[in-house]
Design brief:
Elements: E1 4-10, E2 13-19, H1 21-30, H2 37-47, H3 53-59, H4 65-77
Antiparallel strand pairs: 1-2
Helix pairs in contact: 1-2, 2-4
């Protein structure tokens, strides 16, 4: 998996995120049906350019910001997959 620098603009600020496979996997493994905001916040704070951490922290106080921002970054980071099921069938047991 790749390491990527992803820039996201909000207002007049261009945030720089340095996403690694390790950070991505840790984020994906920490998300649960009842816990989404804290893993998103932790991920974003761990991959943002260190000099922008305080600005990002303020942005993440806004309702929904963490989920929208993490969605944008993950979408850019993940490769595009094109899976097609050719045919499926039920196998009979003998």
């Amino acid at each position: 998996m790749k390491n990527m620098k992803i820039e996201v603009s909000h207002g007049d600020i261009d945030y720089k995120f340095y996403v690694t496979a390790q950070a991505y996997n840790k984020y994906i493994n920490s998300v649960t049906p009842t816990n989404k905001i804290q893993p998103a916040t932790n991920f974003l704070m761990s991959v943002v350019q260190k000099e922008q951490a305080n600005q990002l922290k303020q942005l993440l106080e806004l309702p929904g910001a963490a989920l929208h921002l993490v969605g944008t970054i993950i979408e850019d980071y993940q490769p595009e997959f094109n899976f097609t099921v050719k045919k499926s069938s039920v196998e009979q047991e003998e």
